[in-house]
Amino acid sequence: MNLKTLAKGMLYLFLALFSTAAFAQTKVITGKVTDSKDGSPVAGASVVVKGTQYGTQTGADGTFKLNAPADSKTLVISSLNFVTQEIAVTGSPINISLVPSADQLGDVVVIGYGTARKNDYSGALTSVKAKDFNQGIISSPDQLLQNKVAGLQIVSNGGQPGTATTVKLRGNSSLIAGQQPLYVIDGVPLDGRTARPSVTLNAGGFGTTPDDNPLLFINMNDIAQVDVLKDASATAIYGSRGANGVIVITTKKATGGPLKVEAGVSYGVNAGYMKRYDILNAAQFRQALTKYNLPSSLDGGVSVDPFKAIEQNTIAQNYNLAFSGGNENGRFRASFLASNQPGIIKNTDLAKYIASFNGEYKMLDKRLTIGFNMIAGHVSYQLPNVSNTAGSQGNLISSALSWNPTQPFNNSNGLFNYPTNGSGNPMSLLAAYSDNSNLNTFLGNISASYKIAKNLNYKFLYAINHATGSRLTNIDGFIQGYSGLSGLGFGAISGAILTSQTFTHTLSYDANITKKLKLNAVAGYEYWTSDYSNQSFSATGFNTNLDQTQLSLPYTSVLQNGNTQNLPSIYVDPTTSLQSYFGRAILNYDEKYILTATMRADGSNKFGANNKYGYFPSVSGRWVMRNEKFLQDSKLISSLALRASWGITGSQEFPASASQESFGVNSYNNIGQSNVFNPNLKWQQTSQTDLGLDFGLFNGRLFGTFDYYSKNTTNILFQSNAIQPAPAATYWINLPGHIMNKGFELSLGAIVVDHKNFGWNVNFNMAYNKNKLTDFYAPGTTTPLQILTGQITGQGVSGTLAQIMTNNQPIDAFYLKPFGGFDANGNQIIGANPIIAGNPNPTTIYGVGTDLRYKKFTLTINAGGQGGYLIYSNTATNITNISGIVAGRNIDKAAYNSPEGVTSAVGASTRFLQSGNFFKLRNATINYQVGNVGKYIKNMSAFVTGNNLFVITKFTGFDPEVNTDHSNAGYPSLSIEYLPYPTQRTVSFGVNFSL
Fold it and tell me: Which residue has the higher pLDDT, 374 or 42?
């Protein structure tokens, strides 16, 4: 035997012995990880042998398989939002039930250009996970958070699916429009606008329809969590766009493991109006004719319910499908959504088709990571004629409210009846009016991250948000009683384009400086740009569709056939550019003392040449008292930390041309100046101080957060008229004064019962805010400024402004003539001069939720409300007022039951101010965890959900949670109700499962 042969034999023997030894020293451990709350599987949980590097992750069904040392005694199981557990290895398989984390201090929160453990962060924020969202038929992501976050007010501007919401965090921080928080989707800041074209119908008493929600292109099933950044320490990293708060939406990402398929389907039905307007029915209307000695000819001889006639009962549908998979070097996730959400009123529909695709791939020995995230959404709307600024008959809701309930909608020939009393026929409006929009949105980003050193990482991100919208609006000429429309018709074709781009470079460092000192730091540069344009072409005077029995193509298909071609309306917004430098450092010493410092410099072309840059610093600290020796042995206190922060944020939410000399082209060779340049226009700034306390008691069974804050906004942006002999144009300046917001927030949670077959959790949040405008004087004087807004619309009150912004008052305080009752003839007694009449800003916002679990059943309830404010009912002022019954229009019961006479004149006054306080049961869900079905269907659950089940309020309108846009000259109104789309009660049911 030669040496070479001997060597080969020994090598084979060694390998055989090594393999045998290796197999002899390991064993396979299998098991499943589930949620103790409802028994659902926990995907992506980490399973590690204690004291070793042997580990794996659970798959989509919560199962795992781990090759572990033969002498393994303990497994450590951890997952986001759950308490880490250690389980003894006594056999296989092992079933582990993870308990949801109560205080969530170990949760990872997204804080802007990075993440952190909540316990390591010293700013004020609230994180809401997908499992805690509002449930049921919900059209936009912001509605998932209603009454979930202390201090966050979310009010739908109407009950129509997809309509815009008014969102405010910790009160008003601006006098002008653009008070919405900044939305950030997967690290990409949004423009905040929408590409659905705006259309104003000035003919026939028709008005402007409400805006749509800019977040509709996001699949709500894809959202993993939402982090609401509140104080300046949290928002200063976003600088000039952080004054109104920041809402960070993080979508679900790919997880490793075999292919995972998730699916869900649900259907919803209309369950009627949540609350109806209290008007007279047919029998009561006849009684009113007798009471007021009105002619019997006003009795049409039938009994109709207009709101029943315009109601539809179309099924809502929702289909969702997602795929994910991969390994440690690459993973992906793709999802698809098709949904259809009809409104409660005919000719209302919101359809969405959304696809998303994201992935992450590692290369170059895992030093380089390439990531991408794409969302493509198509949203189509069908809108009825429900507008903000319609006249007395140019609105479907107005026609339904004022329609004589004893009058038939059609005559004996089947044609529409057209009363001459100004009410309009709601059924003819439905037939003659069509408004259809299509919106295509793409949001995509690609990033490259390179690990320069062990703790040093560089990342580049490019993102684009591109949206195009088209809109076709038709009003057939057969409709009668509408000046400029009857016998003529109207057609409009509109389009809009919105594009924003983001370029971000960041350098991050995360390391232990010493054994007790940790540093998490990030520095970066960002460039953001946005462009918007809108155009509309319209015509009137068509010779088709003038007879309701002979209808042909819509006018927008033959627009050139209109006898009168209106001048095109074209608007191109100047490009907005923002260049930023930012940095943040978080120091953590011994898990007891955390210090955070942030600085951002923003340069914007919106501001004057002398003030291009603004600087936004912040600093905060957190003292984790629970980790001090004097509390380490406490059995009562499980967590306790004190926070404090201060910082400055800014606002640039105003027209892009505000500091520039701007001109408008009115027609051929007709150009006029629209804005006078101001090279000294400065940034509006908000300084904020916050003191907070985070606590947990009884081993986390009772937990909560308390915050006190004070916000002071200065350099107030103000739009004024240029002083003569300058052209008739606007002029933007900074005003002295302070917008003050002071208040507190409280969030509480409790695990009341936690047994294997029964559990009960309760949560509660509330916030109090006081808003006031101080030192608000004309420049160089002590004369208080007065800005009037809040247009009151309708015959007899047009031109009335009901709200004021002035010194020592809340923003948009009601400013109305006082109501003094009725005189001997039943006429209203209204004072000559307006007075400060009340606050439209809710001082208190609260939410409450609970879930009860019994074996495989779970009941979840979410409710909330607002208090301490007033609502002005423009509807009661001039639509359902008592004088209408003389002409045969319907009236509301409040007018009927009052001593008012039918000759009383219409007038805006404090009479129509009503308490806005309410409590609403938003949604209730019963879920049954079916489990696995057959060989392939895993983790099936079935549910039934009710939305908008009831509201308790003294407000007489459809919904006290209302804000019809009645702004004036760019200054927003608040808490004015005028013919809003009614809120719908719905019931939905469906199933979710995985494969």
Answer: 374
Question: What percent of the residues of the chain are helix, what percent strand, and what percent coil, each to the nearest 5?
Answer: 10, 50, 40
Token reading at 941: 């659950």
Q: Dihedral of CA 958/960/962/967: which sign?
A: positive
The pLDDT confidence band at residue 11, using thresholds 50, 70 and 90, is very low
Nearest in space to 362 (alpha carbons), one of 401, 331, 320: 331
Residues 6 or more apart whose Cβ sits within 8 Å of residue 952: 918, 919, 920
Burial 600-613 (b: 16+ CB within 10 A, else e): bbbbbbbbbeebbe
**What is the arithmetic mean of pLDDT over 826-851?**
96
Average pLDDT over residues 520-548: 95
In this prediction, residue 5 carries a pLDDT of: 47
* Average pLDDT of span 302-322: 96
| Rounded percentage of the chain residues whose pLDDT exceeds 90 | 67
| Confidence band, pLDDT 50/70/90 cuts, at residue 101 | low
Is the pLDDT assigned to residue 20 strictly greater than 80?
no
Q: Measure CA of the first residue to CA of the last residue in the chain; give whole Å.
A: 59
Higher pLDDT, 24 or 59: 59
> Beta strands 55-57 and 330-342: pairing type?
unpaired
- In the predicted model, is pLDDT for residue 256 greater than 90? no
Prior bond of 210 cis (ω within 30°): no
Lookup: tokens for 822: 């009725």
Find, among 449, 446, 460, 403, the residue nearest to 426 by Cα.
403
Number of helical (H) and strand (E) elements in the chain, helices listed first: 9, 52
Q: Does residue 21 carry a pLDDT above 50?
A: no
Q: Rounded to an integer, what distance in angstroms lies between the CA atom of residue 14 and that of residue 417? A: 100
Is it true that the peptide bond before 655 is cis, omega within 30 degrees of 0? Answer: no
Show Cβ contacts of residue 515 under 8 Å, excluding neighbours closer than 6 positions: none
Tell me the C-alpha to C-alpha distance, in Å, between residue 459 and each of 19, 114, 502: 43, 11, 14
For residues 286 and 300, is the Cβ–Cβ distance under 8 A? no
Q: How far apart are CA 985 and CA 995, in angstroms?
A: 33
Task: Name the residue with tokens 């001039």.
Answer: 878
Sign of CA dihedral 965, 970, 972, 973: negative
Distance, CA of 869 to chain centre: 22
Rounded to the nearest 5°, which phi and psi values hold at 24?
Answer: -70, -25
- Record the tokens describing residue 883, joined without a space: 């004088």
The DSSP 8-state label assigned to residue 238 in this structure reads G
> Comparing C-alpha atoms, which of 207, 387, 391, 200 is closest to residue 795?
391
- Residue 430, H or E segment: helix 426-432
d(CA 552, CA 549): 10
Q: How many CA atoms lie within 13 A of 437 on its CB side?
A: 28
Residue 901 has pLDDT above 60, yes or no: yes
Read off the pLDDT of each residue in 16-24 and give the average, rounded to a whole number: 40
The mean pLDDT value for 677-684 works out to 84
Which tens digits make up the pLDDT trace of 37-83?
A: 667 788 778 888 887 767 787 876 788 888 888 888 888 887 766 77
- Strand 976-977: give its sheet, edge to edge: 913-915, 870-873, 976-977
Residue 612 three-state SS: coil
**Is 101 within 8 Å of 81 (Cβ atoms)?**
yes
Q: Which residue has the higher pLDDT, 413 or 606?
A: 413
Contact call for residues 721 and 675 (beta carbons, < 8 A)? no
Q: For residue 722, is pLDDT > 70? A: no
Q: What is the CA radius of gyration of the chain?
A: 31
Q: Using alpha carbons only, what angle is made at residue 428 by residues 423 and 434, rounded to the nearest 5 degrees? A: 115
Q: Where are the beta strands (DSSP E) in 513-636?
A: 517-540, 564-565, 569-589, 593-604, 613-624
**Going by C-beta distance under 8 Å and a sequence separation of 6 or more, which residues neighbour residue 424?**
393, 394, 398, 399, 402, 403, 481, 482
| Alpha-carbon gap, residue 863 to 847, rounded angstroms | 6
| Secondary structure of residue 936 in the 3-state scheme | coil
